[in-house]
Amino acid sequence: MTTTLFQNASILNPRAGDLSDGDVLVRDGRIAEVSASRIAAPEDAAVVDLGGRVLMPGLTDGHVHVVAVTADFAALKRMSPFYVSARAGQILKAMLMRGFTTVRDAGGADFGLARAVEEGVIPGPRILFCGHALSQTGGHGDMRTPGENELGFCFCCAGLGLVCDGVPEVRRAAREEIRKGATQIKIMASGGVASPTDRIDSTQFAREEIAAVVEEADAANLYVMAHAYTARAINRALELGVRTIEHGNLMDEESCRLFHAHGAYLVPTLSTYAALADEGVDAGMPVDLQRKVYDVLDAGARALELAYREGVPMVYGSDLLGTMHRHQLNEFNIRKAVVPAADLIRAATTNAADAFGRSGEFGEIIPGARADFLVSAGNPLDDITVLTRPDTNLLAIMKAGAFHKNALR
Question: What are the residue ranges spanned by the domains of the chain?
Fold first, then answer.
């Protein structure tokens, strides 16, 4: 591993929402020292003088589907996993080049893909994965049409979901994903857009099934993330111990109270609704499913306003599919109408690490954290859209102490 010393940096602290001048020493992929004073360069160090440019933590996207190479999930589960992995490699590299050094996969990626990235076989952000998202029969993870009877889901398929019913089955499904190294467990707690036989306003899984999954995750020192749209689905998931709510478009004031009471986080994914409305059919989503996006499109903005007003902690998420992955940074553009730049950066850095139980591991520039950095040509605290133009504004991208882009020379 190399040693790198960044000198004359303007260091962005997401927790405080400010900048401070200093030097940062990186050794063996971790931050070894941060100082407001000049750090003496070790003999083996590569010295990078930033000349006052902004040095900030790499970004985290808390809701991605890196194996969603198409928006047609029924077609996805029939694809060769080798083909899907090859296409996922392209998606992952593009995410890294946008400045995302960690992503949390919400269904589909597994230990093999995460290991390939960790070993450098595939360039991409670090992957926190749930394996298959757990779904009840006819739920958001069940991609059968009304005329299909064969289940067609197994523990090794290329699809994003796994159907399981009843407490014994959901326990076994959760344990299977934990056995395979999942860093969190995901459940489908309400209807969704991309599923052919459910309704947006349905609740999914019985309370005892959700409680069983939460218990299994907790036993393994993990947590549960839940796809949920309606207040009814959100509120009971929070009451039962789910830590992160994905989407949350139809939440209410009681939801806000429960987020605070249970120390939970909201992961809005507004960029995907805008993309689905404009491009969903062209990206492969069946027309009848794409129409469902309008049930939640406008509600997402209202939920964002409510959550921000009530101080609900939020995490950055995009949830894009197929060719729409290129809109990953548009989440900043959409949220900036409501949320200040410092809070947007926090959502994509420290809030994410805190929500995932990894505080101090990534998302901030402190000793011991992973050396995941972006060097920006502008100050995103003044203008968040600096981050939405990575080709010109991200001068360097470092992950785990290694440069993946370096235009500083």
Answer: 3-57+363-406, 59-328
